[in-house]
């Protein structure tokens, strides 16, 4: 059994005031189950609710973080909570929902698992990206994406593995993905789907100039370095943009594991079958 959860900090998809009624009902169900819910201040203001607490207070005092929205909302909450080791779970108000596996009509039954400790914890490996001349670190749950500033035209990306040069990618972009992110942007670019709890890093070129530039799956014990010959940028999980100046070196390596709360009966392969309609619905 896991630790019972009695205090939850909630963060809601931005610019979604239409979720107010759903959120109020979710908070009521959780409260009726003996769970205290603190709505993050910006989310509370957006919904027009009274009160609201700062995210730092949630990190200090909550037992878990609740994301209400889609996978993007949960990923944002994950990156904001780096270092806290708080478990996170999501209620899916969108359509796809690989990570936010709980549906609104399942909140009542899931609340009983939270207070009893009967939920499952899945640990997802993140990536850490850092320019070698800087101490600032960027964390990705899905992917680090290297591309041109204007997203138009090709870019040359020099790549090293464990300080050994191995390739110059001539591409529209290069995806450096986690196994968790293999079913996100990576799969749209022709990369492999990788079981999210494998110890790997994925390198997937986007619209490569050469047919020999193929997706690559490596051990996450290896460290990667990338250099550009012209200015570009990196996108972290499609949410955070950072300028990548030419001749700077970007280091990418494995980082911490993030605990995500899931239903104990959840099957990753059943989720794949449902989301990708594998097997033709049979």
UniProtKB/TrEMBL annotation:
<dbReference type="InterPro" id="IPR017438">
    <property type="entry name" value="ATP-NAD_kinase_N"/>
</dbReference>
<comment type="similarity">
    <text>Belongs to the NAD kinase family.</text>
</comment>
<feature type="binding site">
    <location>
        <begin position="142"/>
        <end position="143"/>
    </location>
    <ligand>
        <name>NAD(+)</name>
    </ligand>
</feature>
<dbReference type="InterPro" id="IPR017437">
    <property type="entry name" value="ATP-NAD_kinase_PpnK-typ_C"/>
</dbReference>
<dbReference type="InterPro" id="IPR002504">
    <property type="entry name" value="NADK"/>
</dbReference>
<dbReference type="InterPro" id="IPR016064">
    <property type="entry name" value="NAD/diacylglycerol_kinase_sf"/>
</dbReference>
<dbReference type="Pfam" id="PF01513">
    <property type="entry name" value="NAD_kinase"/>
</dbReference>
<dbReference type="GO" id="GO:0006741">
    <property type="term" value="P:NADP+ biosynthetic process"/>
</dbReference>
<dbReference type="GO" id="GO:0003951">
    <property type="term" value="F:NAD+ kinase activity"/>
</dbReference>
<protein>
    <recommendedName>
        <fullName>NAD kinase</fullName>
        <ecNumber>2.7.1.23</ecNumber>
    </recommendedName>
</protein>
<dbReference type="GO" id="GO:0051287">
    <property type="term" value="F:NAD binding"/>
</dbReference>
<feature type="active site" description="Proton acceptor">
    <location>
        <position position="71"/>
    </location>
</feature>
<keyword id="KW-0520">NAD</keyword>
<comment type="function">
    <text>Involved in the regulation of the intracellular balance of NAD and NADP, and is a key enzyme in the biosynthesis of NADP. Catalyzes specifically the phosphorylation on 2'-hydroxyl of the adenosine moiety of NAD to yield NADP.</text>
</comment>
<keyword id="KW-0418">Kinase</keyword>
<keyword id="KW-0963">Cytoplasm</keyword>
<dbReference type="GO" id="GO:0005524">
    <property type="term" value="F:ATP binding"/>
</dbReference>
<dbReference type="GO" id="GO:0005737">
    <property type="term" value="C:cytoplasm"/>
</dbReference>
<dbReference type="Pfam" id="PF20143">
    <property type="entry name" value="NAD_kinase_C"/>
</dbReference>
<dbReference type="GO" id="GO:0019674">
    <property type="term" value="P:NAD+ metabolic process"/>
</dbReference>
<keyword id="KW-0808">Transferase</keyword>
<dbReference type="GO" id="GO:0046872">
    <property type="term" value="F:metal ion binding"/>
</dbReference>
<keyword id="KW-0521">NADP</keyword>
<feature type="binding site">
    <location>
        <position position="172"/>
    </location>
    <ligand>
        <name>NAD(+)</name>
    </ligand>
</feature>
<feature type="binding site">
    <location>
        <position position="239"/>
    </location>
    <ligand>
        <name>NAD(+)</name>
    </ligand>
</feature>
<feature type="binding site">
    <location>
        <begin position="183"/>
        <end position="188"/>
    </location>
    <ligand>
        <name>NAD(+)</name>
    </ligand>
</feature>
<keyword id="KW-0547">Nucleotide-binding</keyword>
<feature type="binding site">
    <location>
        <begin position="71"/>
        <end position="72"/>
    </location>
    <ligand>
        <name>NAD(+)</name>
    </ligand>
</feature>
<keyword id="KW-0067">ATP-binding</keyword>
């Amino acid at each position: 059994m896991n630790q019972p959860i009695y205090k939850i900090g909630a963060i809601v998809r931005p610019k979604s005031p239409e979720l107010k009624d759903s959120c109020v009902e979710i908070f009521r169900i959780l409260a009726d189950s003996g769970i205290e819910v603190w709505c993050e201040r910006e989310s509370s203001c957006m919904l027009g609710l009274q009160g609201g607490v700062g995210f730092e207070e949630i990190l200090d005092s909550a037992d878990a973080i609740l994301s209400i929205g889609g996978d993007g909302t949960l990923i944002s909450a994950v990156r904001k909570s780096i270092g806290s080791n708080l478990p996170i779970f999501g209620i899916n108000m969108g359509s796809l929902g690989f990570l936010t596996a709980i549906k609104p009509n399942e909140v009542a039954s899931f609340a009983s698992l939270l207070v009893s400790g009967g939920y499952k914890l899945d640990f997802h490996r993140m990536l850490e990206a850092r320019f070698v001349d800087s101490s600032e670190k960027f964390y990705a749950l899905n992917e680090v994406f290297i591309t041109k500033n204007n997203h138009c035209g090709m870019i040359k990306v020099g790549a090293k593995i464990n300080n050994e040069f191995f390739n110059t990618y001539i591409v529209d972009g290069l995806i450096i993905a986690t196994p968790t992110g293999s079913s996100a942007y990576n799969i749209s670019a022709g990369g492999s789907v990788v079981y999210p709890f494998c110890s790997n890093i994925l390198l997937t070129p986007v619209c490569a100039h050469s047919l020999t530039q193929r997706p690559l799956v490596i051990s996450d014990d290896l460290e990667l370095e990338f250099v550009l010959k012209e200015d570009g940028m990196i996108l972290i999980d499609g949410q955070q943009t950072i300028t990548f100046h030419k001749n700077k070196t970007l280091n990418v390596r494995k980082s911490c594991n993030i605990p995500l709360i899931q239903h104990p009966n959840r099957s990753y392969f059943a989720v794949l079958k449902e989301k990708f309609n594998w097997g033709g619905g049979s």
